[in-house]
Amino acid sequence: MISWEELCENFREINIIIENNLFITLAVCEGAYLMKTINPDLRALFWGFLGSFKELEANDLAIRYENFYDEFLSSFDIDEAFRKLEIAYPDLPSSYQVINSEHVLLMFLKNIIEQNSVTT
Description:
By secondary structure, this protein is mainly alpha-helical. It has two domains: 1-56 and 96-120, no CATH class; 57-94, no CATH class. The chain is 51% helix and 11% strand. It has helices spanning 4-17, 58-75, 78-87, 101-119, and strands spanning 23-25, 48-52, 96-100. A three-stranded mixed β-sheet has the order 1-2-3. The termini are far apart.
């Protein structure tokens, strides 16, 4: 077993070595929990990640990620692979998102601005 914090520290070390090119796919329920472990005072954990902000069913993960990797490993087109993931299970709405480090920075800045405007 490994904690999210330990896993994230490993991601950070890898991302530093590969110069902010780490893209993580989180085929787990509520994989976007990764966002809660980010410390804006430290170097980035990733360039981007694919995950869900909701609890998922096992068959949802299996179907969507099979389509994602079938496309990605043949075309290396992340946008098309994500599109295939999105449409793979039409009976269930998708809760997956691709988040990159720029998006995370903008979220942090927005939160800081909102906190400062409330306190002033």
